[in-house]
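Section handout 9: paired folding examples.
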Amino acid sequence: MAQQDIPPKFGVAFLPGPPAEFSAWCLEAEVLGFDLVGIPDSQSVYRENIVSSTLAAAHTRRVRFGPMVINPITRHPAVAASAIATLAELAPGRVILGIGTGDSAVHNLGLRPAKLAELREYVTTIRQLLLRGESVYQGTPVRITWKPPYVPIYIAAIGPRTMELAGEIADGVIILNGLLPENIKASLTHIGVGAASAGRRVEDLDLWWWTSAAVADSRTAAIESLMMSLASGAKHLAQVTTDGKQIPSELEPTFHEVMGRYRFDQHQVPGGANVRLIEELGLVDYLAERMAIAGSPNDCKAQIARAQKAGAYQFCLLVAFANKIGFMRRWSESVVADLS
């Protein structure tokens, strides 16, 4: 099959909300044919991730799901490995584990995100616990005394060094660098460098492109519903460094200002301080073009086609606004139906 003929796949990510509502979202995602449900982890602003993941296991039968993403700072690897392996017993073959350096979960505790060496050790430790039940973490033996099932590990990556690490050691990558052709090509290049260092190919990894998404009667209306997620995307691009992230040089100081002023206690809050921040700094149009699939059904299909042409085929759609079921139905009926 030629690359241009590869059909796209779509997952959906929900910020964990009240249990009954969250369960209904997951069930609807499965009914509508989504391939993945991603579940963010941020204890200060969302409901508990592992409890929410358990609800996903209980209320679905087919769709893959799992944390997107936990981090080395707030969850010890033995605790994380035990939790994810237990989930895999509830839903064999359907659970994945996403791991990143830490974002709002970490900042809302006044802590710092993990460094890449810490991320490497954390991923390695969890993999060893899942494969053989024991490992050494930060110089201390850790173990799981029962035989856990293996769960594929995905690394969330934005910058080139994290992408190279993901290409080297992960089973899959959650790519948060954006959907402009230059972003996609740079991401594939860096993941490929890491994969080659471990004797692998990019094709050996399961790649998911994380993006905000909204379909509406107009592009303006769609973007309006995504503002809090666009603000989060701006902060992602500015975190640690802007180097190697394909940010126009004239915008780099503006992105640094976003990072300095971002309110983690209002992370993904509609109409909050972070929304006002990206409006004040004039970043909305750039972020909407880079970090979202948004607009009318035809707008969305055109943006997907552009991303496919650049090499992206699997998209995890973050839905942070209220009408999640309405979005999934309209997306399935007016966007996906014409792509099949």
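Moving on to protein 2 of 2.
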Amino acid sequence: MTAMSTSMSTDHPHLQPELFRPALQYPSHPYAEMLTRTAERYPEQEAILFKDVNLTYRELDALANAFANALLDLGIGKGQRVCLFMANRSEYLISWFAITRIGAVASPMNPSYREREVAYQLSNSEAVALVVQQELLPLVQSVRAETPALEHVVVVGSNPHAPQTFPPSFSYLVRTYPPTPRGLEAGWEDLIALPYSSGTTGLPKGVMLSHKNLVCNAYQSVATARITFQDRLLVFVPLYHIYGIMLMGLAAMTGATIVLMERFDADKCLQLIQEQRITILYSVPQVLAVLNDWPRLHDYDLHTVRFTQCGAAPVPPALARRFEELTHIPVMTSYGLTEASPGTHSNPVYDPQLMKVETIGLPIHDTRQKIVDIETGQIELGVGGEGELIVQGPQVMQGYWKAPEATAEALRDGWLYTGDIGWRDEEGYVTITDRKKELIKYKGFSVAPAQLEALLLEHVAVADVAIIAKPNEEAGEVPKAFVVLRSGYEDLSEDELLVWVNGQIAGYKQVREIEFIDAVPRNPSGKILRRVLKEQEWRKMGL
């Protein structure tokens, strides 16, 4: 792999990304081959540390082989979808690599999903199998009648020494099946992952990612951030999120160690950085905000951290600068989306003269960018022109699952239309200013207003509704609903309606506030004028 140069700075006032992010050579092997090769090269290197679990790459490879053999014996084969429904834990990585090793397609699910969301993804993906955390099994059992394609359920977290049970336990299967590979090969263009991404239509869409997409983005990410087998990565971002999927791949490729947390906890995070000598911290803006104000921040030794990569949501420049001032850890602001596996842009963290934290950085290796006009998407804009960011590269998805119209809208002439609005400077750095799509970014997670609106309209008392993103210091944005009540239901309270709607959806999607209004502002064609409601809200907040 070609190394990046760090010598380009003021000598190149019109810096071109290809000068220090040259083209890479990508091996055309299946995704799981990265783990196989790393296990051969660094067999005793620590792969995963999670609570009291410590697995080497040799052990991770063997466990993935054993579970892969179990899945094959269940009759699961190439191209079939297997959903993963659990929180961060070591079994997640084992399951992920096992599924990808047999040519099946992994479809991660958010463990905070409720019944209707579980039923939707299992049904829409036509999943034949599910690997589920024991605590979440009742949710799955309650929707089995709505998921006719689902044939097999494997339970994680049951007694590891228990005999065979039904549904079968993960621990029994990996203990029973041989840790030897069967030599099943997947193709470079074959589908490997089907994560679901929220869309403006409201219902999440499956994003079709191939072996090529994920392998190439792993190589791109490693080259951009210069990750090696000596790195120790602290990972608390969810493994079901595309961010977490990226981290599993780059660790498997390099032999870096993943120190895994089930969820973020400030003191535990700082303790692990110190005790495990973490070299790279993967974060989101809300975590930086918490750490900036954490009273015990300076009680810990953080000197081993080379940088923190921050993404999943826009990073306020002042937040990044304050974190660096407090910790002396550079913040590598970056950008990506599920449809690009996910990475497309990042700042060159190794040269302070090239860092522009107010931007998402430059395109990563083998990634092209354009800013095009919002109206037609056909006219490329020059320096400073504000339009839609579109990208092209080997990491761009194959399309949306069973959604040809949405695919045609997002992929045009080989370019991925991101739906994000921004502008580029003379050196190619991009600043994101808005979202063409209406998605609400809650702690880095996408929430579709249309989905919440459709749900609220199911309530007998709701005549009309509009959802907007309300600025929130802790979460970034939260959903606020403006509701028009039907005649005769004027006694319905905000709290009653909040309890009703939030009881049916995942925590990160929940409506945080309801305001009753006389009419939802709409244009002549009936489209909600969210900008009107946002401006009203901002004025109330003094923004």
